[in-house]
């Protein structure tokens, strides 16, 4: 078994341009905590996420509209605000009053080039989502919808992060334990992909990452977790997976997240950006495994 914090303990090869989004809204604390961790790690990070909670909106896309009289979530912008906007003191924090896909698209095409002198993102991350996104949840998740837009349409490698523990929480509340743990875990995976070198992921693929419960007295520190390479769907009728951990059938992410949460397993599934199911090409799976090898573990 490899040390799950090996890569996190090493400096980044270089900071890369990362666009971040989610479906819980730009002011949700999971996203903001991950933003801060990426920033402190030396990454170039821009957040472009919905003005409101848009959970369960999948790959919906619509022109942004003026914010209604209630304002953005958690009073993070006043009623009647423009369809898109930025934090008054940090232009890297941006809202888009529409769906997650629209939000990340605006970040990629408008906000990022404006802040990066015409350059676009090199990597997309979404979440960590409030709640898991496993198996049949995947097609309906806005967090995954944004990631697959980046991977398929914008041709930017993407990682979608989701975590079981927590409820929607404002950005200015004390940082919950689970938010910090999930941010640290997500950073370790992101650093591993970045340090593996470009191209960060094969074309038209994304990573669907799920974190189990993170609670005091249990899985309460990033150092306690192990990263397991898994499938989004069971694959009972699919071709054989890559030969990994002595098997040609990868574990099912839902099994580990739903029924083995106390084992502190993080699931990382190779996703097909065309249909949000598992990448069924064993050769492509192996490419991703090789990038993640420094942190991957096998089930006992």
From TrEMBL:
Pfam families assigned: SurE
Positions with biased composition (Polar residues): 51-66
Coiled coil ranges: none
Keywords on record: Hydrolase, Metal-binding, Signal
Residue ranges, annotated region (Disordered): 49-69
Keyword Chloroplast among record annotations: no
GO molecular function: metal ion binding; nucleotidase activity
Keyword check for Hydrolase: yes
Domain of life: Eukaryota
Signal sequence residues: 1-15
Every Survival protein SurE-like phosphatase/nucleotidase domain range: 18-217
Family: Belongs to the SurE nucleotidase family.
Protein name per its UniProtKB record: Sure-like protein
Species of origin: Setomelanomma holmii
